[in-house]
Design a protein that fits this description.
The structure holds two protein chains of two kinds. By secondary structure, chain A is mainly beta. Chain A has strands spanning 3-5, 9-13, 18-25, 29-37, 44-49, 53-57, 60-65, 70-75, 84-92, 100-103, 107-112. In chain A, the strands form two sheets. In chain A, strands 2, 4, 5, 9, 10 and 11 form a six-stranded mixed β-sheet that branches. Chain A has a five-stranded antiparallel β-sheet with strand order 1-3-8-7-6, with no helix packed on it. Chain A starts with a strand and ends with a strand. By secondary structure, chain B is mainly beta. Chain B has strands at 4-7, 10-13, 19-25, 31-38, 42-51, 54-57, 65-66, 76-78, 87-94, 102-103, 107-111. The mean pLDDT of chain B is 94. Classes of the chains: A mainly beta, B mainly beta. Chains A and B meet through strand 4, strand 5, strand 9 and strand 10 of A and strand 4, strand 5 and strand 10 of B.
């Protein structure tokens, strides 16, 4: 089976930086997604890492180390609208071409003024 | 506008009354999937489909059925709903291998 762990909640101040860690134990790893989800809304795609290293997209960056089973999402210059749940999702190879997607429980980020 | 739509958005029903939640995407995506989301458990995959007439079980398929007769539609069927199927359901679709799934707006189902 798969095991995906991320912290339940993090609090940070507006303008600060927050790093959300995600660790996973899985067989057939084939990529890791980060999603943002506001309460009661659909998850929205933030980033995808399949190779080791850092991917940067504006204020958001995501890092992957496959050998360590570890990823993080870095949110810079935090804004109040960044208060949301952040979901780590691992793509696992199966016999079909797309595979399966398994999610961690999510990290609730609270941004305070 | 590229989107995934789900209907209904909210549904309250009683135990044992068959229901269908529809999902449709207009992006010609091959991959479609259903998830349920419960507090503290995150999103769990129910079923997924790689293409027309090709479906496979996710992690929590018990009590659910799906069909994929057309590429754009992927309905979720609960033949005999039970209270433990009360949840928030999301449909998602994706293009080729490695493309991120895009999620529909969600269906909040309550079974009494």
């Amino acid at each position: 089976g798969q095991n995906i762990d991320q912290p339940t909640e993090m609090t940070a101040t507006e303008g600060a930086i927050v790093q959300i860690n995600c660790t996973y134990q899985t067989s057939g790893f084939n990529g890791l997604f980060w999603y943002q989800q506001h309460a009661g809304e659909a998850p929205t795609f933030l980033s995808y890492n399949v190779l080791d290293g850092l991917e940067e997209k504006g204020r958001f960056s995501s890092f992957l180390s496959r050998s360590k089973g570890y990823s993080y999402l870095l949110l810079k210059e935090l804004q109040m609208k960044d208060s949301a749940s952040y979901l780590c999702a691992v793509r696992v190879l199966t016999t079909d071409s797309w595979g399966k997607l398994q999610f961690g429980a999510g990290t609730q980020v609270v941004v305070t003024p | 506008e590229a989107q995934v739509t789900q209907n209904p958005r909210y549904l309250i029903t009683v135990t044992g009354k068959k229901l269908t939640v529809t999902c449709s995407q207009n992006m010609n995506h091959e991959y479609m999937s259903w998830y349920r989301q419960d507090p503290g458990l995150g999103l769990r995959q129910i079923y997924y489909s790689m293409n027309v007439e090709v479906t496979d079980k996710g992690d929590v398929p018990e009590g659910y059925k799906v069909s994929r007769k057309e590429k754009r539609n992927f309905p979720l069927i609960l033949e005999s709903p039970s209270p433990n199927q009360t949840s928030l359901y999301f449909c998602a679709s994706a293009a080729g291998s490695g493309s991120p799934p895009y999620f529909g707006p969600g269906t909040r189902l309550t079974v009494t």
